[in-house]
Amino acid sequence: MSTEEKAWKRFLQQGIYYIVNPFVRLLIKLGFTPNAVTMTGFIMNIGVAVLFIIAAEDENRANYAYVGWAGFLIMMAGLFDMLDGQVARMGNMGSTFGALFDSVLDRYSELVMFLGICYYLIAHDYFLSSLFAFVALIGSMMVSYTRARAEGLGIECKGGFFQRPERVVLIALAGMFCGLTAFLFGDFKLYIPGVPFSVFETMSVFTFPLAILAVFTNVTAFSRLMGAKKSLEEKEAAELRQQTVRSYEPIKENTVTPV
Fold first, then answer.
1. Rounded to the nearest 10 degrees, what angle do helices 65-90 and 34-57 cross at?
2. How many alpha carbons fall within 13 Å on the CB side of residue 91?
3. Beta pairing partners, 201
4. What's the sign of the alpha-carbon dihedral 189, 194, 195, 200?
5. pLDDT tens by residue, 31-77
6. Partners of 190 in the beta sheet?
7. Taking the model in full, what pTM does it have?
8. What does the alpha-carbon distance between residue 233 and residue 220 come to, in Å, rounded to a whole number?
9. Beta strands, E only, 139-204
10. How far is CA 221 from CA 63, 141, 164, 229, in A?
């Protein structure tokens, strides 16, 4: 990650914290612990999956209100996912287990959310879009796993654009805009003469970002893998140089200077 990118992300993060810190203080006053905030976000994501499953069982395929509300709930759950760390810092309640608990629940939250999305898309015969959603799920998990595995080997691995906050915001906005588009314009379909199927429709507002995620989450995971490979090679080369120096020093010390 370049210095400019780090500075920009730090500036954006500080701006977000400036907005949410009053709410963080309220949560602390109400007695919320970081783990309770994490669990609240997870429960909200279960609610997201429930909304998508209810929408899947609705015989009216053109009822996109569920998708819009699911998008809103995804955004709220993402907010709680972000606040747990801030609650830990401002309330002096940080712990090693809390960090682990947060990481594990984040993975469960994302899996449950994509479960609901895939169920909905398959139930309403959006087969290609369901494949995009499943590939996006694979990419999302590999982005997180690559970082965790690299850091387990002592390598920092935080690069790439489609990290969890970006993924959450994109899916949430896609769902909300899909619901809003349906509310304003109804269930529309755009056809091109000579093409037997619609090239764009109301549902595309939600599924097109899933296609973007399917591509770029896996690109991010691969770029992290290559970055970790480079860092590991540099680390191994440095260790080899140190071993060479250490093995040479005793020989140098024991060398007898000829008379």
1. 170
2. 25
3. 189
4. negative
5. 889 999 999 999 999 999 999 999 999 888 888 999 999 999 999 99
6. 200
7. 0.85
8. 20
9. 189-190, 200-201
10. 35, 9, 12, 12
